[in-house]
Amino acid sequence: MTKTQAIAFSRNGGPEVLEYVDVDLPPPSADEIQIRHAAIGLNFIDVYFRDGTYKAAHLPFIAGKEAAGTVTAIGPGVNGFAVGDRVAYAGADGAYSVERNVEAKHLVKVPDAISLETAAAMMLKGMTAEYLLNRTFKVGPETVLLFHAAAGGVGLIAGQWAKALGATVIGTAGSQDKVKLALEHGYDYVINYRTENFLDRVRELTGGKGVDVVYDSIGRDTFPQSLDCLKPRGMFVSFGQSSGAIENFTMAMLAQRGSLYATRPTLFTYIATRDELTACANALFDIVLSSKVRININQTYPLREVGRAHTDLETRRTTGTTLLIP
C-alpha cells in the first residue's frame, strides 16, 4: 500500500470544502489499471457533486470525471493494456488525484499524435459534443441550431463540429470577448445575451421560423425562452443547469409551442457499453486529428488550487477548457 494525493470533500458546500489530502493507493485489483495523471479536466459536473446538486456516492468523496495519464500497473484479468500506455477516460469518479486505480472498462488509448493534456481537455466535453450532435439530434447541412454557452468547453468544440457537419450554427455568450472567441470556432452568429435579447435575435436570424434544436446547459436563466426559439416539432436538449435547475416545466408547454420534443441526456448513458464508448471516443479523436476541431486549453491550475478553479468556473471567468495539473 502506497500513498498518493487527491482533492476530497467531506461535506457539500462552496469551493472551500475541497481539501488536498493524502489517500491510500493499493495495487490495482481485478479488472483495474493504475495510472499516473498528467492532466485532469475541470467540468461543471464537478461543481454539481461538490455543492450537492448531484449526490455523491459516499463521503469523503474525490470528485472529477475526466483525466489522462500513463499506465503504471495492471490488475489481474486486464487485457489490451500495458504499462506505459497513454490512456484517457471520462465518467469514472475520482479524477482529482495524482495517481489512482480505475476500472479498465473506462479507459481508451490516446493516439500518439494527441498529447495527454489535449486528451484530458477533451474527453468529457468532446464526447458530449459527439453524442449531442450525432445522436441526440442528428445535425446535418439542413440543420439550424442554437447552442448556449458557445464560448464554454463544450460550446467551442460543438461549434466547430457542427460547422464541419454543414449546419448553420447560432450561439450565445456573455461578453464581447466570448462572442469573438465563439465566432472563431465555427459559429455563424453569436448573441451577447447581456446586451441583446437572444429570443428576439434568433427570430430575426431565422426569419421568424425558429431553430431545429436548442442545446442548453444553462437551465433556469434561459428557460422558457429556449423553447420559444424552436420551430414546430423542434427539439429542446437540456444537458446542464449552470444557472440553476429549471422550475415549473410542464408537458403542456411543449404542446403550446408546436408539438416540441424535450430531452435531458447525459454522456454516461451514451457511453454505457464498451462499444459505445470506443465509437464515441474514436469519432472524437478522428475529428481532432482531421483539424476540423481544435481543442483550446485556455486555463490551467495546479491541482492544489482547485478551489480557485471552481470559483472561476462558477463566476464565468473561464473560456474553453480548463485543466488541473497534479
UniProtKB/TrEMBL annotation:
It is an enzyme of class 1 (oxidoreductase). SUPFAM superfamilies: GroES-like, NAD(P)-binding Rossmann-fold domains. One of its GO terms (molecular function) is NADPH binding. Its EC number is 1.6.5.5. InterPro entries: ADH-like_C, ADH-like_N, ER, GroES-like_sf, NAD(P)-bd_dom_sf, QOR-like. Keywords: NADP, Oxidoreductase. Residues 13-324 form the Enoyl reductase (ER) domain. CDD domains: QOR2. It holds the Pfam family ADH_N. GO terms for cellular component: cytosol. The keyword NADP applies. PANTHER family: QUINONE OXIDOREDUCTASE PIG3-RELATED, QUINONE OXIDOREDUCTASE-RELATED. This is Quinone oxidoreductase 1. It comes from Rhizobium gallicum bv. gallicum R602sp.
